[in-house]
Task: structure prediction
Amino acid sequence: MTLEAATETVREQDPDRFGAVLAAAPDQRPALVTLYALNLELARAPFQSAEPMLAEMRLQWWVDRLAEMGQGTEPPLHDVLTPLWESWGTSAGAFADLAEARRRDCAREPFTGPDEVIDYIDATSGRLMWFAAQRLGANTASQPVVADHARGVGLAAWLRALHQLQPLGLGFQHETPEHAVELAKAAQESLRLASRRHKLVAKQAAAALYPGPRIPRLLAEIASGRLDPYKDASEITPFQRRASLARLALTGRWWR
Result:
């Protein structure tokens, strides 16, 4: 995959992050695109086989290649790893953690409660956002702010997809409404905490922290019981997506 092909993949499969990439400095866009393309591959890997052991073997392949890159070994020509190496070099070794966090997906292991979902989001969406924010200039002092924001954003995305995850065995073990409400309220609180301390995050990191459109409304609807995420889809219109991205581009504001 050339950089151009990776860009097209992210544009088609992850439109919110793709739109945010365009708000980043041009010289940083290749790094973000390749990171997000990798994330798509890691998320897809556990579902390339219905057999858990085979799915985990596919995921392990990514873990091993990323670990080798971290040790300075250039990967073989590959659709994703080659442009990733060109943008990140040995720093890509840290991304093995993103792959490790997907192991439970291989077993189609549902979550027993909200705390398990929060841990999963921190290890996947949370780490991903921190890698991107660091690349755009976020320093160590701002990591707790980014972590809170990433948790809120990641939980919102997970809840938005719950009606699709539940039939796959990747939602909750039981369709417990209270679990969804608890997660929505946890997400709201995390976003509030990040918003209060947003000044600690470098302004140039805004593109990495873009939350996506209609997050506050989605969380409010779930927290109040007006929307059942087990059954109801919360669609985003093209206009809503464009308006949300325009706000980011014009103001640099990622917090709520």
About this structure: The radius of gyration is 18 Å.
